[in-house]
Amino acid sequence: MPRHVDHDGRRSRIVKVTMGLLATGGLRAVTIREVARQLGGSVTLVTHYYPTRSAILDDLASQLIEIWRQEVADIDAGTDEPIERLRQYLAWALPTRAEALRREQARIRLLAERESEPSATATFQAFDATMRWDLRRHLEGLVDDESLEFVVDLLRVAVTGVTVLAVEHEGRWTPKKQLQFADQLLVTVGIMEPDSPSP
Description:
Residues 31-50 bind DNA. This protein is mostly helical. The chain has helices at 7-25, 32-39, 43-47, 53-77, 82-93, 98-112, 119-139, 145-168, 175-188. It has a domain at 57-188: Tetracycline Repressor, domain 2, CATH 1.10.357.10. The protein contains nine helices and no strands.
């Protein structure tokens, strides 16, 4: 009887190893040989699914966006209150959890080296489009239509800035400080009252 192979699970493991290599060593660390070594198999274990490093990176973007969509759907299901849903989304978007920090370390390293990897540009465009769509959706009804795009830009820049600071200064930009910053930003743009509770 032929052995059943979980192809989706194998692809997912390859992408997860790739993300770990990116987070710790950047693009130079990501080779098909090293991914295979980390998985404990031969190069063909990887090339069966991904013939090139670019193919792995393309799928990394697709898989992360799919994971993000599911995680955001789970967050949104937790409350019907729009401001709380926005706060929970921002808490998710910031690197307040170990897995999110590792994901952002990988993303920032890829960003720094994107000139040497043509597929990286498409990856970042997909990430940005997904983040902006989510922000727009979470802001609808909380800001007027005229201000919506400005507030989307403001929150996008703020999340990116805090993320970079959290990666650069992990001990200084603690999860608590990141969440306090996000709440203060929502107060500043008039979405929350100054005396609203912090998470």
